[in-house]
């Protein structure tokens, strides 16, 4: 059996540019990954199948063409194998919440199948498979710290970016990405911020991120006012930086250290017991296997 994790993706900033001829918008984003994750197991079987378990499994029930199955079929086509695999997905992350859960699941499927069918693909082939599955899938193939651009298909590694102690918060109110873009009026555009360098202190991180924002946060707040409540709760609990990830509605706060992050999570959960609240590390170094 092969096991993979599909970590939550966090956009530390997200700038939106003009609309492209293919209908997508130009984007620019600083992306890191969290320790909280969905989990996948892949085992040989008579046919391709998917079982979804976990606290957010019900949100995917009735989904006829899950992104995990699409990723498995795409792998089979391009690697020229028949993916007779039973995939079990433990859905631990909120669905449609701006932290790339489905995209990360698809990317983890590609990684897992590359290990199961050893020698058929290498990392570049997986990256080539990913764009057809979704804009966020390529950057999730190798969870790291990236500057992402284009519609998400271009990304460059950011070296020496620190590990961050953080809290993720989601009040359980899904937001439609299409609706958020439909309300977008003000945008920073792309190419207006330098790549982060020499960030080793919280003060340096604050200074860098103060020159950025999430262009989708304002329209998302119009559709889902609780996003503002989440950000205020993060700030009140000690977050040095707090903003929305992706197109929402999950928000993140960055804290001075692990102890203050865990304390902050406890405070928020005590005041909002129906929210999904997780203390986590962002950009923790990991080793990923590709065969």
Q: How is this structure best described in words?
A:
This protein has helices spanning 67-79, 101-116, 123-129, 137-141, 177-182, 202-210, 217-223, 226-236, 258-271, and strands spanning 2-19, 25-44, 49-53, 85-90, 146-150, 154-157, 164-170, 241-244, 251-255, 276-282. 30% of the residues lie in helices and 28% in strands. The chain folds into 2 domains: 2-157, Ribosomal Protein S5, domain 2; 164-282, 2-Layer Sandwich (Alpha-Beta Plaits). It has 291 residues and is of the alpha+beta class.
Question: How is the secondary structure organized here?
Answer:
Layout: E1 2-19, E2 25-44, E3 49-53, H1 67-79, E4 85-90, H2 101-116, H3 123-129, H4 137-141, E5 146-150, E6 154-157, E7 164-170, H5 177-182, H6 202-210, H7 217-223, H8 226-236, E8 241-244, E9 251-255, H9 258-271, E10 276-282
């Amino acid at each position: 059996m092969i096991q993979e994790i599909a970590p939550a993706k966090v956009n530390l900033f997200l700038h939106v540019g003009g609309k492209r001829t293919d209908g997508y918008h130009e984007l620019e984003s600083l992306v890191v990954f969290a320790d909280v994750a969905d989990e996948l197991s892949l085992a040989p079987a008579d046919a391709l199948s998917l079982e979804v378990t976990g606290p957010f499994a019900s949100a995917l029930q009735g989904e006829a063409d899950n992104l995990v199955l699409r990723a498995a079929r795409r792998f089979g086509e391009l690697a020229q194998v028949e993916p007779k695999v039973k995939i079990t997905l433990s859905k631990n992350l909120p669905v449609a919440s701006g932290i790339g859960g489905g995209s990360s699941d698809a990317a983890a499927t590609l990684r897992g199948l590359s290990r199961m069918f050893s020698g058929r693909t290498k990392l570049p082939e997986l990256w080539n498979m990913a764009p057809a599955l979704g804009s966020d899938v390529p950057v999730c193939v190798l969870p790291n710290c990236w500057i992402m651009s284009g519609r998400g298909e271009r990304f460059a590694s950011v070296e020496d970016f620190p590990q961050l102690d953080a809290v993720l918060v989601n009040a359980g109110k899904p937001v439609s990405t299409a609706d958020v873009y439909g309300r977008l009026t003000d945008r920073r555009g792309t190419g207006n911020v330098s790549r982060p360098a020499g960030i080793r202190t919280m003060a340096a991180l604050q200074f860098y991120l103060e020159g950025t924002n999430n262009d989708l946060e304002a329209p998302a707040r119009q559709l889902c006012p609780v996003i503002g409540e989440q950000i205020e709760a993060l700030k009140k609990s000690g977050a040095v930086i707090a903003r929305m990830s992706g197109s929402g509605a999950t928000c993140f706060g960055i804290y001075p250290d692990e102890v203050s992050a865990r304390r902050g999570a406890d405070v928020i959960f005590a005041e909002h017991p129906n929210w999904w609240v997780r203390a986590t590390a962002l950009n923790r170094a990991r080793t990923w296997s590709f065969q």
